Amino acid sequence: MTERGEIDLITFERLLDWHIQSGTNAIVVVGTTGESATLSPKEHCELVRHCVSHVNQRVPVVAGTGSNNTHEALEFTEDAAKSGADAALLVAPYYTKPSQEGLYQHFKLIAESVDIPQILYNVPGRTACDISFETIERLTEFENIIGIKDATGRLEIGLNLVQSFGERLAVYSGEDGLSRELILAGADGTISVTANVAPVLMSSMCSAALNGDQAEAERLDGVLEKLHETLFLEGNPVPVKWALAQMGMVGPSLRLPLVELGPRHRVRVSNALAAAGIEISKTV
Fold first, then answer.
1. Could you tell me the pLDDT band of residue 95, with boundaries at 50, 70 and 90?
2. What is the share, in percent, of the chain residues with pLDDT greater than 70?
3. Active site residue 121
C-alpha cells in the first residue's frame, strides 16, 4: 500500500518478478498475506486480473476467492476464472461458523458453478470453523476440487490428510514450521508465509523435501526456523510487511485495522532475518 492507502501496483509487480526469479513455483494473489481482508470487492478482482496479466504464464497464479458470504465467494471465483487464474483458493467461511452441512453446500455450489481447479483452505485459528475429514471426503467427488491447504497447525492432521486423500487431493502445508515434515511425509508443497520474505530459501527447502533429501531439507529449515516463529508475533501480514519494508522491498503502510509491527517485536524479527542471512537496509 502507498502512504495514502492505495494499492501500489509498481511495487506489487516488482514483488511478483522477485518471487519468480527466486524459485517460487506459484503465486497466491489476494491471500491473507496479500491483505485481502482490507480490499474492496472491486480491488480484489482487479488485483487478480493485474497479477495474471503481469505473471503472463511464467508460473501458475492461484487466486484467493473465499468469503463468509457464499454469493461473494462465487462471484470472486467466477471472476478469477474469467481473468485466467490457474486455480482458486477457498478459505472456509469465517465468523459465521457454518455446520459441516453448510460447509459442504458452500463448497459444492462453487465447485459445480465454476470450471476452475479449486483448493480448499482450512485455517480454524482464523475462521473459527474447521472442515472435518468427513466433509473433505464428501467434497472429493468434485473433480475440480484438486487440493487442500492445511493450516490447522497440527502435524497429525496434515499426515492424516496425506494418508487419507493424498492420491485424490494435493495436500499443501499452511503452517511453515511443519512444512518440511509434512512434505517429507508425502505432501505436495506449502502455501507459505515465510516465502514472502525468504523465497529462495523456502523454495530450496521445499525442493529438497520433495526430492526426499531429508538432511538438506532439515539444514535449510533450521536456517528458516526463527522466521517461521517471528513472522507470527502479530497477526499475518503485519510482521511480513514490516520485514519486507526493512529489506527495502515495500513501504511500511497497511490499511486499518492493520497497523505497523509493534516496537517490542522488531528486534526479534530483525534477528530472524539476520539468522536467515537476509540483509536489511533500515535500522530498527
1. very high
2. 99
3. yes
CB atoms within 10 A of CB 156: 8
Strand segments (E) across 16-86: 27-29, 61-64
Distance CA 34, CA 196 (A): 10
Is 149 considered catalytic here?
A: yes
- In the set 42, 94, 104, 121, the catalytic residue is 121
Q: Which of 104, 149, 172, 241 is catalytic?
A: 149
pTM score above 0.90: yes
**Long-range contacts (CB closer than 8 Å, 24 or more residues apart) made by 99-104:** 100/131, 100/132, 100/134, 100/135, 103/129, 103/131, 103/135, 104/135, 104/138, 104/139
Give SS3 for 173: strand
- Residue 248: burial class (beta carbons within 10 Å; 0-12, 13-18, 19+): exposed
Query: What average pLDDT score do residues 99-118 get?
Result: 98
Phi, psi torsion values for 172, nearest 5 degrees: -115, 135
**E strands in 65-160:** 87-91, 118-122, 145-150
CATH architecture assigned to 9-151: Alpha-Beta Barrel (3.20)
92 φ, ψ (degrees, to nearest 5): -60, 140
> What are the structural domain ranges in the chain?
9-151
**pLDDT > 80? residue 129:** yes
